[in-house]
Amino acid sequence: MSTKPTLLILAAGMGSRYGGLKQLDRVGPGGETIMDYSVYDAIRAGFGKIIFVIRKSFEEDFEREVISKFKDKIEVKVVYQDINNVPKGCSFNPEREKPWGTNHAVLMAKDVINEPFGVINADDFYGRESFEVLAEFLNSVNGKQNQYCMVAYRLQNTLSENGYVSRGECFVDENSFLTNVIERTKIIRKGDNIVFQPNENEEKTLAPDTPVSMNFWGFTPDYFEHSEKRFIKFLEEEGSQLKSEFYIPTMVNDLISNNIAICRVIDTPATWFGVTYIEDKSMVVERINNLTKQGKYPTNLWQEDLENL
Fold first, then answer.
1. Domain housing 120
2. Structural domain contains residue 237
3. Consecutive H or E run containing 213
4. Rounded to an integer, what distance in angstroms lies between the CA atom of residue 21 and that of residue 156?
5. Is residue 116 part of a domain?
6. Could you tell me whether strands 75-80 and 193-199 are parallel, antiparallel, or unpaired per DSSP bridges?
7. Are the C-beta atoms of 118 and 26 separated by less than 8 Å?
8. CA distance 235 to 300
9. Average pLDDT for runs of 10 along the chain of length 309
10. What is the pTM of this model?
11. 178 in helix, strand or coil?
């Protein structure tokens, strides 16, 4: 059995600020989506399998627009995030309409992943170097337990020019292990400073090189068992709420604070980019065109022989 790491791509969300199924937007010169570049970089980095978490309702569009392009290049599976997919015996408010966020999405893959795996957002461009360091870490923890990582980006490399963003500020110890992730909201560049709003009437500054989480994680497969136990508790405490969310950083913080797992924070100077607002799309197209002109990517990702990369 292959021990190559797996990449889990979270693609079930619809962009509330952006509108529409932004994961299927074409941004590359050959009509590629941002996901195409993530899969391409993952193949180059040595990942052996790609698993997508999607909603069942856009399965056909997803197969046609995304998976069909590279399913002959790497093993691909699809799992579905559904509000009714909860552990046996658990209940929740019947008026709730949406699933419970990113860590609930991760749980959808618990029956199809048995090896170290990475987790990324579908609509974020992370860069080749990030996949390489993630693959290196995942290969190093093969056969181990409770050893995780997060590839952290520098805040100044993750902002949108078109509005506020939210980022998870990462706190690390002297050995670069994560001690906490705190969600910062309404982050924006103001003159020479980067500020956020801890509440409506207050602004605080953040250093440009503050490490932040862009949902680029690496886990050993025991993470699923921990997550399911914590999700059962979460539903008992917050299942009646219509807007409660079960996020990855919340889960990781819980495991760290209880000394169950450790999470190494890997710094990257790479520039993250994504489509938070519809106005961001032209910037993404321009940056990918520039990377293509520099020879970092071919004009059409899937027309070449990936065996020779």
1. 6-145+213-257+277-302
2. yes
3. strand 211-219
4. 27
5. yes
6. unpaired
7. no
8. 45
9. 86 56 76 93 96 89 87 95 91 91 96 97 92 96 97 93 92 96 92 92 94 96 97 94 92 96 93 84 94 94 69
10. 0.92
11. strand
